[in-house]
Design goal:
heterodimer; A: about 100 residues; mainly beta; 2 helices; globular; B: about 130 residues; about 0% strand
Chain lengths: ~100, ~130
């Protein structure tokens, strides 16, 4: 399946509620980051968790976020203080606000 | 499968103040950024009980049985009540998953587990002279 994003793209995590198992932590919802790795496509854990097939497979990316942005640190964190998370494509959208 | 996420550097400021996450529906496990103090990095040798829970989990999920997936395990643990989740150790959470999924998959029934627990408890109490 084709991947919507490539390494270096700026993305924003969807700020959506989701009842049930999912692997997008709340503290990253609505936050912007950069794609730093592409792990290929995997069966969707949101379905696998309930005994369903989890198809079609979802591309999975490693996204890097600046800590100062994630925690609204207003300069309390250095720019090299980052957090990375592996997030599925359907939780990501292009980060238009920063002109990516 | 790659790891879920890795944290680097400095404790965060209070979550409600910073991320707007208070408005999100969060599972009991979804605690990234909550104030929690330092991480206890002390190691200990697994106890006999922990080894047994580990062995049972591996057997239920081996190539031969494949009774459930990691994601089902996680879903079961994440749906523990907040009180039980907070009070349970790592392997107690595994035990909760084992019990719940064995019932869900139709391998055991609540009644069978209750019956066996009563038998084991009676044997233990006889052996230790408690009754």
């Amino acid at each position: 399946m084709s991947h919507r994003f490539k390494i270096g793209d700026r993305v924003r995590v969807r700020a959506d509620d989701h009842i049930g198992h999912h692997r997008t932590p709340a503290y990253l919802k609505g936050k912007s980051g950069v794609v730093v790795d592409d792990f290929g496509a995997w069966r969707n854990p949101e379905e696998l968790a309930y005994g369903k097939p989890g198809l079609p497979k979802q591309p999975l990316y490693m996204i890097k976020f600046e800590m100062d942005h994630v925690w609204a640190g207003r300069g309390a964190y250095a720019r090299h203080d980052t957090v990375t998370a592996d997030l599925y494509e359907h939780w990501l959208e292009p980060d238009r606000e920063t002109g990516a | 499968m790659p790891l879920a996420g890795s944290l680097q550097a400095r404790p965060p400021r209070s979550v409600e103040e910073t991320s707007g996450r208070a408005n999100m529906t969060r599972g009991v496990h979804d605690m990234g950024g909550d104030p929690a103090g330092p991480i206890d990095r002390q190691e200990h040798e697994p106890t006999l009980t922990e080894r047994r829970i580990d062995a049972m989990m591996l057997l239920m999920r081996d190539q031969k049985r494949r009774l459930w997936l990691t994601d089902e395990n996680r879903r079961t643990i994440e749906s523990m009540s907040p009180g039980d989740y907070e009070a349970s150790s790592y392997y107690q959470k595994w035990l909760h998953a084992l019990r719940g999924l064995l019932i869900e998959k139709g391998v055991l029934t609540e009644a069978e587990i209750a019956e066996r627990l009563a038998a084991v408890r009676a044997r233990y109490e006889t052996a230790s002279g408690k009754s």
